[in-house]
Amino acid sequence: MRAIRRFTVRPVLPEPLAALGTLAGNLRWSWHPPTQDVFEAVDPDLWEATGHDPVRLLGAVDSARLDELAADGAFLDMLGAASDDLQAYLTGEQWYQRSGDADLPRAVAYFSPEYGITAVLPQYSGGLGILAGDHLKAASDLGVPIVGVGLLYKQGYFKQSLSREGWQQETYPVLDPDELPLSLLHEPDGSRALVRISVAGGAEMVARIWVASVGRVPLLLLDTDVEENPDHLREVTDRLYGGTSEHRLRQELLLGVGGVRALRVYSRITGAPEPEVFHTNEGHAGFLGLERIRELSVAEGGPGLDFDTALEVSRGSTVFTTHTPVPAGIDRFGRDLVEQYFGGASPVPGVPVERILALGAEDYEGGDPSVFNMAVMGFRLAQRANGVSQLHGHVSREMFNGLWPAFDEAEVPITSITNGVHAPTWVGREVVELAEEHGADMDAASRDSFWAAVDKIEGTEVWATKRVLREKLIKDARKRLTKSWTKRGAAPAELSWIDSALDPDVLTIGFARRVPSYKRLTLMLSDPERLKRLLLHPERPIQLVIAGKSHPADDGGKRLIQQLVQFADDPEVRHRIVFLPNYDIAMAQPLYPGCDVWLNNPLRPYEACGTSGMKAALNGGLNLSILDGWWDEWYDGSNGWAIPSADGIDDPDRRDDIEAGALYDLIENEVAPRFYDVGADGVPQRWLEMVRHTLKSLGPKVLATRMVRDYVRKLYTPAAVTGRRLNSDYSGAAELSVWKQRVRGAWDGVRVEHVESSGVGDAPEIGSVLSVRAFVSLGDLSPEDVDVQLVHGVIDAEDTLVASATESLSPVESYAGGRHRYDGDLTLGRSGSFGYTVRVIPKNDLLASPAELGVIALPA
Ligand SMILES: *Cc1c(COP(=O)(O)O)cnc(C)c1O
């Protein structure tokens, strides 16, 4: 019989246990083991059965047990301590409050299409979401006043299982928001707080607003599954990354436009400060800039700025992070579709559709005129932008150079901030406890002193802990294998081999990630016989624990999974290589600490950063990786191994073969011998040296707190400062927009006419002083509008400046007709080939980069 309606009855907690509700209502429990202990003590079996879910635990525990706990002094003490600790965490002064810098933004809004915070809130598909979750958690730890904005998907991302033949199966369990750690935002009159957005066809999309508390950080999640919506709009928030292009466009309108409206509602109701900076995590949320332009230009009650001024205000306080160099990963819509949505009953009525279309146009060489590109719009709507590792910053500058064609790659205004991971979430409890026994303090993990404790711990202790962690992983893996094989149709009698699958004394290598082709899940299968020999080596065997989901529409990825599963099904090797279905946070948490080596073999340079290897490193795992993403930056020769990549070899099969060969060689000749080289005390001394070095060299760098501090210093604070200058009465923004138009309009008249130099004769040497005199024509512009620069440095065989620095020349004389003379001296500081040129670029201290207007003048 089907019920016609469902609802969830919330438990009533006896008064002495009220704090349990508070603890369950803040996701900080998910990275705070003592709070998890409190829930476990409520009912250990239910805690297991609910998959460590406090809300469901409290919904399921019976009232007799609650009465018992309410009279249990020891439990009440434990509960009181956890509750006091949460209060202190939520209200104490942290890094942000202590910094005393008046320029810091009062609040920052962070937009992301997915958030991976805990397994019990499955609203993520992979790295992007996990990163967003870690960003919020680290911001909370540091006291950074961030508000997260996202969508609540009714079915989240899919759950993965396998068919008998090893083909990926997807299921989409429906989530009941009442059973999630969320609360609905209400108006003061008790009604639900709603946002409304016009969509094509004249309908209005309505969304309610859920609030998740991520420590100190509120996360607003919009959801269209409400009666006010027609069916097709109720489904807008059905799944993460599913459906047609139009479906995705509606999701992104909700996230961007609806997200800004939700923030306004939230501030109005709670009194929270309005964000001064808006950060869009990848292009999906980019429409937020259009809503801000609407607020500033045509909205009733707004300041009524013209479009260009509103754009300056909004841009100045927006930060855009690009996350992928894979072209298929860039979000693009048909231009027609975008025109249809913004042309008629627009979600941002009054904002001219031609201006919107221009923002996402690929109007550069090689661009496709029929598409609307969300990353391109992201760059145009944000004055500050970044990639997520140094290498990715470099690759992004090349990839998007077309937006600033007059400038060399190095000056394309995309910087980089390397991702990080949230230690309290990802470091195994046993590891934290071991460090704390030796005087380390987890709260001080960002300081080097924490990592210095690593040297105080005996090798035998480290090694014993590592074995415990391997055992834990193996126990979890066997449970998962049994479940998976049962689902694949095996009878219990066929499964006795699982009891001895994996061995806690064997070198354990982990590989888990999404399965797009560039991550090369099956590279390890390039030579199956060789892999088999490594797995079954009589003295130095390895074992592999593998996991990963393929996007449901990607049959290529599913074929790779199938190949791997079929290899691992072979009775000869199945005790040494396992594929565990349904990679998620719950699986990841025991996986990283349980592995000795973390393998990553993407096709360079497509891994923008990668974070799983960072999580492994924080648990004393050694990375074995292609020099891509973060590893390219922080591999130092002795904190793991670099798999040489065959960049430049065009035949992909040959390249794979070469790289796979190098991988096998490394495992056989370096990794396994070192792991099994144990002394009389049973400890592999040289292995532990690498573990210690990994923790000390990488520990402080890979932290999400380091990342969030970098964002605050390098992007949020400068954006807030610009925002304030542009915002006070908007005259700064109006002047800037008028100035930009004037400079662009007059740029045709700007020329470097003639350059003279003296001081270096035929044989310049270090210490010689080069005097440069440049005659430039500025047309209708004045010297205040421009910077005339000497660009100098190393040149290559084609006279191209390859490593250059700039120095401003000084105006010394003006002549009729807009001509000016600029002078400057330069002391030659290094030997070797040297070259220079002179250029003119626009100058205004409200610009974040000299390339911002995209114009430059060089000698003819
Ligand atoms: C860390 C993590 C990822 C991202 O890993 P990458 O190395 O960036 O691919 C994906 N899924 C889960 C569950 C994770 O914990």
UniProtKB/TrEMBL annotation:
Extract the Gene3D superfamilies matched here. Glycogen Phosphorylase B
Keyword terms:
Allosteric enzyme, Carbohydrate metabolism, Glycosyltransferase, Pyridoxal phosphate, Transferase
Query: What Enzyme Commission number does this protein have?
Result: 2.4.1.1
Q: List required co-factors.
A: pyridoxal 5'-phosphate
> Which InterPro entries does the UniProt entry name for this protein?
Agluc_phsphrylas, Glyco_trans_35, Glycogen/Maltodextrin_Phosph, Glycogen_phosphorylase_DUF3417, Pyridoxal_P_attach_site
Glycosyltransferase listed as a keyword: yes
Transferase as UniProt keyword: yes
Q: Where is the DUF3417 domain?
A: 13-121
Pfam families with a match to the protein in the record: DUF3417, Phosphorylase
What superkingdom does the record give? Bacteria
Per UniProt, the enzyme's principal EC class comes to transferase
Kindly state which reaction or reactions the protein catalyses.
Answer: [(1->4)-alpha-D-glucosyl](n) + phosphate = [(1->4)-alpha-D-glucosyl](n-1) + alpha-D-glucose 1-phosphate
Q: What does this protein do?
A: Phosphorylase is an important allosteric enzyme in carbohydrate metabolism. Enzymes from different sources differ in their regulatory mechanisms and in their natural substrates. However, all known phosphorylases share catalytic and structural properties.
Indicate the family of this protein.
Belongs to the glycogen phosphorylase family.
User: What is the name of this protein?
Assistant: glycogen phosphorylase
